[in-house]
Structures are given as C-alpha cells and as structure tokens.
Amino acid sequence: MKKYVLVLVILVAAVVPFFLFEDRYCPLRSHLIKQEKRRVQRMRLPFDLDGSRKNILRNLKLRKDKLALAEAEKILLVEPGDLCALWAKAEIFRRTYRFQESEKLLKQILSKYPAHASSLISLSYMRYHEDKFEEASGILQEVLGQPDLDRENKALVYMLMGSINAKKASLGGFLYKVAYGTRVGGFFVKAKTLAPDLSEVRLGLGTFYLLAPRIVGGNIDKAIQELEYAVKLTPDFATVNARLAQAYKKKGDVDKFNLYILKAEELDPENEALREIKGDL
C-alpha cells in the first residue's frame, strides 16, 4: 500500500509543475490566451471612436501632438487599421523628424487609400524637405485635382506650393529668384483666403513677409501681424514662436525676441527654424 501511495505522490509531483507553469511549456497557447484576454478587455471598454478621432484632429490642429498621439494609440489598440489614427501617427512622426517611420505609415495608408489627401500632403512635405521639388509639386497637383477636396487641405496645398517656390528661389541664381520668388506671395495669400484660422497658413504668409525682399512684398510689420496671430492660434507651435522671435529681432525689439526664442527652445530644442535663427546669431 505504501508503495502505491509513493508512486501516486511521485506522479502528482511530476504533473503539478506542468499545470503550474504550463505557460513556459506552451508559449503559443499562453500568447493566445493573453491575446484573447486583451481582446475581451478592449470590447468591454466604453469607447467613443468618432469622438476620439475628433480629439485627434483638434489636437493636431492646436499642435498638441503628444495628446494626439495618445488618442491615436488608444484607437489603434481597438482598430489597428483606423485611417485617422494611422495618418495622425505618421504626421506626428513627420513633425518630429522621424521621416522614415512616417513614410512607412504613409505608404501603408496610400496602398489602401491612394487618394487620401492628408497623407499625400504629408508625403509632399517630406519630398519638399528633401529638395525633391518636382516630386513634391506633382503630389500636390494630384491632391488639387480631387473634386471633393476640403478648404483646409486645399489651403495647405497652396501653402506648400508657396514654400516650394520660395526654396527654389533661395537655392537658385538671379533667374530662379525672378521666376519663382515673384510667385511665392500669391500662393500664401490664396492659402490665407481659404483657411484664415489655420496656423500653418499664417506661418507661411508671415515668414514670406519676414524673409522676402521688399521689392517682392517683404514687410516686417505684416510679418509680425501674421505671426502674432499664428501664435494666438497655436501657442505650442515651436516654428511659429521661432519665426516671431526672428521678426522681433529684425524689428529691434530684444525683449520680445528673447521671450519667443526661449519659448521655441522650450517647445522643441531641435526645431529647424530655431536652429537656423540661432546659427545666424
């Protein structure tokens, strides 16, 4: 009898660890169980998908990118293929100079939705940043050809066209400056007419007034007016603060220059406009 009891104890001792630590011996099963638990938890979460998308777009517009990213990640946990959340993540990557990650997401979106205007505009910006002007312009023309394009995206297209022409003018000789420099202001004014409360549009026009020669429309007072309005719209937009600092430096107001340059540094120490301005000091 004792012999049988001993055998039973040995068998139990051998089997119990398997049940106690079965995840170790069956990682696939463990993974599937955890995955299912997460799925059930997500189904139980009270979640307003449309409201969350609106929050993303609102925060992106206000340049509250961290809040927008948190909202996007929340959506992607529930809907991994959500168009709004994927584009928001790509756009935030673009804004933070993570261009490769941004482009990967944008191409993922455009493979399914080739006419997605916001993704095309984000991609065009990156081509502009790489000085691939013809490719950037071609993308923008494709967006402009969309019959249902909303006014804010249309304004962003014209704003980028102005930026492309300005950069072409700055990189070329006298003929480039004449051919492209004289067209810049018209694009920015057109963008402002379409979306006067879009910070990027006010930034574009303000920067044009700030940096353009007087003969083609440069005007420091108009620059400050546009950039002040842009800061009012988006206080957390580092580039706007940096350009306003630059305008006040040109105006000779040292106190306001210091105020806005410090604000830009606080918001984004790696900001391109900020580095350009500090390099000229």
Helix content: over 70%
Distance between the termini: 95 Å
Oligomer: single chain
Overall residue-averaged pLDDT value: 85
Task: Give a short summary of the structure.
With 281 residues, the protein is an all-alpha fold.
Task: Give your account of this protein's structure.
The chain is mostly helical and 281 residues long. Helix content is 80%, strand content 0%. The protein contains 16 helices and no strands. Helix 4 runs parallel beside helix 6, helix 7 packs antiparallel against helix 8 and helix 12 packs antiparallel against helix 13. It is globular and about 55 Å long. The N terminus is likely disordered.
Q: Could you outline the blueprint of secondary structure elements for this entry?
A:
Blueprint: H1 2-20, H2 22-25, H3 27-44, H4 49-61, H5 65-78, H6 83-95, H7 99-112, H8 117-129, H9 133-144, H10 151-171, H11 174-194, H12 199-211, H13 220-233, H14 238-251, H15 254-267, H16 272-279
For the structure shown, list the relevant keywords.
single chain, 281 residues, mainly alpha, 16 helices, 80% helix, globular, disordered N terminus
